[in-house]
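Build the 3D complex.
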Amino acid sequence: MGRGRHLGELEQAVLVALARLEEPSSARRVYSELVSVTGRDLAIASVHVTLTRLADKGFVRERMGPGPEGSGRSVRHFSPTPAGFEELRSVRQQWLKLWDGVRLESQGTSS
Amino acid sequence: MSDVELRSRTARIVRRLLGPGLGDRVATDVDAEIDERTRRDGRARTTVWATRQLAGSIAPAVAWRMGRLAGTAGRWTVPAIDLRGVARRARRDALTTGGVVVTLGLGVAAATTVLAIVSQVLLEPLPYDRPDRIALVRADRPEAAGHPLVTGAEYAAIRGVRGIAAAAVVVAPQHLALGTPEGSSSVVVTGVGPDLLRVLGVSPAMGRGFQPEDVDAVDVAILQHAFWEELGSDPALIGRAIRLGDRPYTVVGVMPQGFELFLGRDARGGEEADVFLPVPVNLENRLNAAFRTLVRLDDGVSLSFVEDRLSAIPPEGDEVRRYHLLALQDDVVAGVRPALLALLAAVALVVAVAGLNAAGLLVARGEARRREWAMRAALGAGRPRLLALSLVESAFLAASATGLGLGLGWVALNGLLRQFSLEVPRLAEASLDGKAVVLATLFAAIVAGAFGLVPAIRAAATPPQQVLGAGGLRSASSRGGRRGLVLLQVALTFVLLAGTGLLGRSVGALEEVPLGFRPEGLFTAKVAAPFPDDGEEWWPFFHSFAGALEARPGIDAVSAVSRTPLVEQSDLDIVRFGSTFDEAQAGAHRADLRWILPNSMDVMGSRFIEGRTFTDDEFRSGAPVVVIDSAMAHALFGEVAAVGRDVHLPRRFAGEPEAARVVGVVASIRLSGLREAPRPQAFRPVSHTPWGVMTLLVRSSLPPDELWSLVRRFSDEQGARNLYAQTSFERTLSGLTSGTTVAALTVAALALIATLASALGLYSLFSFEVACRRREIGVRLAIGADPGRIVREQLAGGLRLGTVGIAAGAGVALLLEAVVDARSFGVDPIDLGIAATVVVSLLGLVATAVWLPARRAGGVDPVDVLSSD
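Done.
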């Protein structure tokens, strides 16, 4: 993996959200997905900037698609590239390995 | 706010934050979201959401814009990560970062404070119209060179000289009683020539200036703005009369706010005039040099041109005189210029120490991080990225140091300096202005930028594999450079510590000057005899005043003398004397002559070496008697007893020498300050001469407030015309030593900064060296070296460096001897005691600063070092 290609926390979250959506999606859609799944609000601007960054890194591709219903405009839609999926698999693998065997239930509680 | 407003305002801010393109896209989404949320959650909750969106957009917007600045969106992460990295590294290298910020900050503080003072006091033009055209006339006289006063006849000749556009006289300020319905208070009145405002190029804020005809009437006055405010700020005061002393004066004008009359280095300080009165000048008078003369030169005429014309004025009598013309600006600051320049030199040293120290720390850190940079370079970071990284760090350090330094400088100027009553003209107006801020920023930026960037440039130029393959941190050349920097710091610290020692000893020497009287519990005030101005009535008034006051409870003893010892002097009191009339007339001997009451010497606590003071009979009958000091006795009679012999000196003020019988000889008294060696002195009964304002001497153990309220009541009962300038000799003495005390404290503060910086520099240098040599030390310990020897080696290295630094410092100190001399008193600039103390202290400091890293070196665990390899 080259310089600057590892994923930050928000980048991972945005890429996972895109993968969950299973179809090319707008930044706003990604934002809604993140908010509804995680329950944490974040700035729409962060999602836009992160998507642009992921595109620069080659992890997502963008193309124009239909905008909100009735608006008649087209907006950018994003979807993970094969490299993006590969990166997600790798990150997931690392996390799973790291978590393997960790039993939080029996730790950190007062006896 | 309506929905539409909320949407449009939020969208506008988002666009402003992110710029066109991305800003438009985000704004569209935010707009749609607001619309949807307003319908779903209501307006209030949506407004909260929108506000949080805006706050949350700032960080990505900054990152986005910085990424755009860096060139491509792909590199947008660089500066953002750098900012976080800088903060992270600052925390990790707290000692280095703190050291750089604190030392640079202290340097900035010292430099900005002193530059602000120097720029205000020495460089800022006087607040007059074209002040470079205004000059003060000084005359060389037998009693003093560069004397600021001229006679009426001299003034008449001076104002007629070609090249002088206008001339005006100013006489010494005096206190007059201001009559008000509530009683009387004392005001400071300065007599000025009618052309003064023309000379200065200043117009009154209200009313008019003086006119030539005002001088003949002498019944008009111009008020200082502050005094006019004290009187109620009434514009209708113009044209009305106020009562000063025993007569009314019509107010014709009020000066502009903040107007100050600067009269040269030896003008009486601390007594700004409340009122200006026109002063008549007797243009025929050739005896009484009483007028300070300011002139305005014609345009295009040089000082030297007019000075040459002045020299052509025929000399008065047998006294050869030469006139000098000094730009008023230069004359005002002439007294403080050497001290300020010495301070500037001291600050230059501190700034150099601070700069060197920060540079040393930065270079060390750069060296320590070469491996990190090499790693970054190996991972693909280009030279611009490395430089940008370094630049961001340097900017962070410079900004922190500038902020700290300006803050400290502000505190120093507005807090500390105001604590001292310094006789430095225009000091009160000194402030940190734009120039100071620019200079401070430049200094911090240059040091942090240059020394922060150098290691990055070198790292970028070195192939990474060379650095990484070497497995180490260091290069011999950088160690030599750092040692040089630390050596210089030690040298400069030596200079400042030696300067502190000399000035400290000067303060001690000033405090130990034999005064010839006991200042403890001795209070002084000026008392004016009552009107009418009948000179024959004056001395009986003072005599009975002192006697009656002495009888009041709480008062131990009272007397009066013609001028206050230590602070009041006049060239008119410097008289010729000799053992015969002819010898006195020849003018070979000159003495200070003072008029006193019979008990003055007793009240002052002066010591009679021989004889006694005047008897009451001698005093009342006006018998020709005199008390002289040991210097005069020695000059006239050598080792032979003086009592019973005759000396010739004036009996009356400005009189001819005549014979007087010596009745007593006293130890010399310091009449004119602490620094000047006393002249021979003579004391005659005040019954010999009309003397209208005397200095009251009161010995009492009462608290000052209680004492002065008692004396004031008493003075009113006795009908004294005025009582003013109440003080004690203890306060007068502290005023005389305050300049040197403050200089000593300032240099001591600077020396402290330099000492701390040097200690930090030594500590970081040796810590760094130990870190670099850890492997070598580990190997030596593994094969059986004694840890104690390793510690001693480090200590010896530190002391060697310290010794060389001290030797260099001693060399610099010798070169700067003249600068230190400017404020020192009664000490040898090459004082071996001080030098030895400074050497021992500095070596102690070096040993302490090196001790911790040395101990760390001795404690290196060989197993740990070798296994980590």
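Residues 9-98 of chain A form a domain with the Arc Repressor Mutant, subunit A fold (CATH 1.10.10.10).
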